[in-house]
Every structure is written in structure tokens, then in C-alpha cells.
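Q: I have two molecules that I believe assemble together. Could you output C-alpha cells for the complex as a whole instead of separate predictions?
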Amino acid sequence: MKNDMTDLIDDLKWRGLISQTTDEKELREALKKPITLYLGTDPTAPSIHVGNLVVLLVLRRFQLAGHHTLPLIGGATGLVGDPSGKNDERTLNTTEVVEQWVNRMTKQLSKFMDFETKQNPAKMVNNLDWTAPMSAIEFLRDIGKHFSVNQMLNKDSVSTRLEKDGISYTEFSYQVLQSMDYLELYRSYNCTLQIGGSDQWGNITAGLDLIRRAEGGSAHALTVPLLTKADGSKFGKTAGGAVWIDPEMTSPYAFFQYWLNSDDKDVIKFIKVFSFKSRAEIEALEKTHNENPGAREAHRELARELTALVHSPEIAVRVEAAARALFGQGDINELDEATLASALAELPRTQVKSGEEIPTWVDLLAATGVVDSKSAARRIVKEGGAYLNNEKIEGEDFRLEKLHFLCGKYAVLRKGKRDLAAVELI
RNA sequence: GGCGGGUUGCCCGAGCGGCCAAUGGGAGGGGACUGUAAAUCCCCCGGCUCUGCCUUCGAAGGUUCAAAUCCUUCACCCGCCA
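A: Yes, here they are, computed for all two components at once.
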């Protein structure tokens, strides 16, 4: 584990990972020695996605720099709902659902932190542990008394909502719950820094106020800017929705492709944010990229590193090989069975039994899931966007034959330029 | 509690008895150009056993030859008044 805690802030700044901090001088001073910090993530979905990853990797950077990290799961706050950055009140999820998500996220978060290291192992905490046992009376007397409603109303997350459709008491209380977390961790772990997305500034500073009032203590805050894309669209979203960490929800292949297809104008920014490469390495990549963006060296490195981190180095190698093998360059018929099989392993697929009649072209496309319906499949075929083994097929009723199965086993379907699927003959 | 306004396809938002699977924009998809990029241009964008049929316009009933459009009830949202 490298130990460069003196220039951590500089590094984060260079990577564009700092939006706001409390007094920077003091923070830098504090960071000269190992401190304890936390990052909270609420279970609002069955998986974390690449958007959550931005801050999570900042937490990892802190750990790598020798600090003590407390990844926090919002088992309690997830039941209440954070109004920050939301235009509308959220419908509450059932406790069972949230509990399930907590379990899944706990597992996922563990991937990015080191719990084994001797010097500064990460410690997972769940705010339900100290929130659930508290009574309403305790809450109002011990915590509520430190909060001024006037100040609470002034928080961005609340005031925007007051101007719109209003806010429930439940979500209004969110900032108090999050503040309790910071106070609790300050007390039991001497946690003196909370990090989060820039939309969390209000919630985090509410916690600082609470620590000051309840304990007379002082602590720090650091927020990470919202990651934006050059074309103005939302980072981390595709047609199919968010890019998830869970391989069941976003296949490792699709995950790799997401990064590989990054806009040229974004790729260096993304590398700074997500990669653990050194500044020198990144600057070298930037140079390569500017000289020949078409080669997409930077894209490839980004995709490789993240897929390896989120899934595994083995999977990263496999999906990249799949892309290379299947993407037109070179004759797909030349591939040997082993390469083909591993290339297709991460793709959506359908099977057809030998001996039985093979479905028509349109039915087959629909069966693999590269298109949503048969109508969509027909449309794609009509528009000339359906390919079999890299050859355009324009007949809706076309049927595959034995000879179309590469190595006697696999057929590669493609919709458009980059949507691949496999048909396996069994 | 009273009065008024609203709920339309992924999102925003027209339509206000037949010409409505429903204008327009955005998002999304295919093609051309390229580099599995961006920009641009063309096309598409509910489903199906596809010259037709089926299901959609908050929910359930009703009026009518015919309803997203009219009536009734219910649910939710937003205003104003109490």
C-alpha cells in the first residue's frame, strides 16, 4: 500500500474529485496523520452503479493513503429517503426490500475496500444499528433539540422541494438522521471526516453542526463533484438504464463496452476519476489519446482497469477478447472453438436444439433479447441492421442452417454496430 | 371539510365524441459518414398469427352505432378557502 498521504488533497484536486471542503488548510493539516473518515451509501436499488462508484473510489483512495475508512450502509436512511437532488417525494420501499438491498450492497461495497490489511482495515457499519434502538422521545430530546427548523428549511434539498410539490415530514427529517450518523461515528470511532457527492453537502454540514453542538467537537467535510458528460447526458446511464456493478444487471461485456464507448472528450476526465494509475501514467495516456484518438488507447485502458476492478482481471481479459474477436476486424469464420466459446460467454444467448426446426430470423433475434420484441426485430431487419456472423441478413423469414454455425456450434447475431448475441446449437 | 384544476405512450407535453396507436419535443434504435467516438443527414420508434387484428390515454362502471375525449364512483396530486 503506497503511503503518500501528504499529497492526497493535491491528487484529488488534480483528478477533479473535489467540489467543496471545509477549511482546506485544517483538512490538509489533519490528513498528515491517519484519520478516520466515512462515506454513506443508501440502499436505493438492488445494486450500486457506476455513479456511486465515483465517491466510493475516493474512499478507497483515502484508505490507500493510510486512513481509516468506514463504509456505511444506510439501512436506516434508506428506509426514510434522501430528498437531496430529488424533485419528487419518493415512494417508500418496504423494509423487506430495503433489507435485501442492504445485504447485496454490503457485499458489493466490500469489493472496493480492504478489510484484511493490518494497518488500516476498513470497517463496515450500518446506521440501522444505532438508529433503530432509539426511541422517538430520545430522538426528539437528545437530537432534535440541536436542530433549528429555520436552518433545516434553508438547506437546498428542502427549499427546492418547498418551491415545488412539497416535502413530507419523513424526508424532511433525513438530514437529522444523517447527522446522527456522523455524530455516532465521531463518538465511537473518532471519525472526523465525511465524504460524499456534492449533493450531500447540506447533509454533511448538518452533521458537523450537530457534532459541534452535542460534543463541542469539530470535524471535516469533503464533497465530490457530480460527474458530467460532454454531451450533457447523464453519466452512467444507457438506453437500458443505469450501468450496474451487479453482473446479472449489467453484463461484464456491456460494462466494458460502456467505458470503451466513452466520448473522446470525456475519456481523460473519466480516467482521472476512476483509475488508480499514477499521474505520470495518466498524462502519458492523455498524450497518446490526443495524438491518435481513433486508436482509443485511453478508452481501452479505462475499460480494462474498471472491468478488472469491478468484475475480475480474468473477466476483463475475456470480454475484451470477445469484443476483438467479434467486432468485424478479421474473419469471424477463422476463430477456433475455444476463442469463440470464451468470447461468447459474456453475451446474451439463446439455444436451439439440433434436429428441431430453427426459428426464423426475426424470431431468433427476439429470442436472444438483443431486441425487445418481434416488431422491433422486424424493424431492425427491414432497416438493414441485423447481422449474422457479420453478414447483413435482410429476409425476415430467413432460417439458419447447419453451415451458419461456426465450429458447428455457435452463430453470432448482431443488431446495429455493437449489440451482440449468441445462438448456440445444442 | 368546501371549491377549483389535474392524472395521456420511456420523459415532457398536445388532443377534448368518429379523420387517434393518438400532433410535437426529448430520450432511444437502424442506416450513411467514421474509429464500436462526436457532429451531421435520412429513416424508425405499443404489441401480434401484420394490407388486418389486439391492448393502451390514473382505476372501475355507464351513455353512445362510436369515448383519451361525455356521465358516475373511487384513488392520487396541485392550488385556493375553512
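A: One point stands out. The mean pLDDT of chain A is 89.
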